[in-house]
Amino acid sequence: MSEQPSTAASSQPKARRAGGYHHGDLRSALLDAARQLIEDRGPNEFTMKDASQMAGVSVAAPYRHFSDREGLLAALTDEEFRIRATELETIRDSLPLGSIDAIIAMGQSYVSRAVERPGLFHLIFGSERPDPAGGPHHLETSNGDRCFGALVGAVMAFVEAHSCPKDDVMGLVGQLWSIVHGAASLQIHHNFQRMLPEIDTQALIHDAAHNLLTGYLAGQNRS
Amino acid sequence: MSEQPSTAASSQPKARRAGGYHHGDLRSALLDAARQLIEDRGPNEFTMKDASQMAGVSVAAPYRHFSDREGLLAALTDEEFRIRATELETIRDSLPLGSIDAIIAMGQSYVSRAVERPGLFHLIFGSERPDPAGGPHHLETSNGDRCFGALVGAVMAFVEAHSCPKDDVMGLVGQLWSIVHGAASLQIHHNFQRMLPEIDTQALIHDAAHNLLTGYLAGQNRS
DNA sequence: AACATATGTTAGCCGTATTAACATAGACCC
DNA sequence: GGGTCTATGTTAATACGGCTAACATATGTT
Fold first, then answer.
1. N or C end of chain B, less CB within 10 A?
2. For position B131, what pLDDT does the model report?
């Protein structure tokens, strides 16, 4: 029950609602509102005011649950990472361990999620601050780790299945991650649409992963 | 003289300055200010107020030169695309036509520029609007076309040099673009730094392009 | 010199984030 | 069952940033 976006009046929390002075589960309601607003317009256009209105409370109420706008977005980011992590883990576990298909399917899921909800992709990966110093970063959340871990596991299994040295795993992970992340970004920002209108992004992921891993194995066998 | 960021009091425009009521070349001064602010803090943190102050004018003055904040950013985006296009074309023309090295060097340039100025990369590629409909898009500018065209040219030469069918060119372009764009994005957002601290992004580009193109050629020869 | 145009300035409006001061609902205690 | 504490709302009020309107001053045209 903690996997799906909390739909306000759900389970264990006291969700009274209806005319009461207190909302019952404002925190969840705000996250739901924010999710929808960001899906529709992207994170930059998201306003606390709109989220408050959707939840049926005053503009000041959210500050009882989140330190500020950033805090709300950070909480939503973590929720979204959790959903993606679970999905990636499911895919990894439902396809043959060490197969190229598992890697490809994970990549396609990554892109699908991004394309379905561009605003949310932008939220979780789109931090703009040039300075990495201050405060915890998005991917730093444990759910971000889970996403990354799922990919690493699939690639690790792949190189082991092909008797390759494990030293290369992280390099391969970086290359594959770049492909899927880049494809997702370019698709979302309509760059493919403008420059490569015919492109099928899912096919691109398939072909790119295939080419990359084939080329990698060829390099291994030769040396 | 039109390649470098216009440094305010330069050449053909009347650049009087010094105590005068009129600035002389406010437009360029604003673009320079915006460039610096965005380099430092990213496009979201950029404010018209700060840019005006840096240029030494009132907050309303910029609106004589740009329709609004978006207009200023669009103009800066085009300038930045022009700089990158020229660089990519230079690289393409200075390395053996059809060589894999030319493709790799272009990719490395793409990433270098991004890493050096994350804010500007974010500006030119970071539009968040889910709706592609309204108005001209960033890459739509002719300078965006030039960037893309340089990459296409290099890949086209590569497949021709290897006697591959030209049908695949756009697919390859999409795959290579995804790699460099993804690597740049992940690096900029500190995702590599968190998850793959040892990674060398330039090497990643080299290896990924090499693996991808090797795998592609292998697929060609086999069929 | 008078006008027309381009380019600045000041003042002010509006929308949004955030905080301060106050209000009320529930929970807990006796 | 009433008193008190805490959590959670509400209504101002403040501050900042984009943008426009009304006014001012250069430039240069004739």
1. C
2. 54
Instruction: Give the single-character DSSP code of B189.
Output: T
> Percentages helix, strand, coil for chain B, rounded to the nearest 5?
70, 0, 30
B47 φ/ψ angles, rounded to the nearest 5 degrees: -125, 145
The average confidence (pLDDT) of chain A is 88
CA distances from A125 to B8, B75, B124 (A): 36, 26, 16
The full set of domains in chain B, from first to last, is: 7-66 (1.10.10.60), 77-127+136-222 (1.10.357.10)
Identify which of B181, B187, B177 has the alpha carbon closest to the alpha carbon of residue B212. Answer: B177
What tokens does B186 get? 């992940």
Indicate yes or no: strand C within 7 A of the C-beta of B26: yes
Q: Within the 116-145 window of chain B, which residues sit less than 8 Å (CB to CB) from chain A?
A: 118-119, 122, 125-130, 132, 137-140, 145
Q: Do B213 and A214 touch (CB under 8 A)?
A: no
Q: Residue A120 to residues A84, A124, B1, B80: CA-CA distances in angstroms?
A: 11, 6, 42, 27
Q: Quick one: how far is CA B54 from the chain centroid?
A: 24
pLDDT of residue A18: 54
Tell which residue, A214, A187, A213, has the closest CA to residue A202. Answer: A187
> CA-to-CA distance for A79 and A85, rounded, in angstroms?
10
Least confident of A165-169, A175-179, B207-211: A165-169
In this structure, how many other beta carbons lie within 10 angstroms of the beta carbon of residue B212?
A: 29
d(CA A177, CA A164): 19
Predicted pLDDT of residue A127: 74
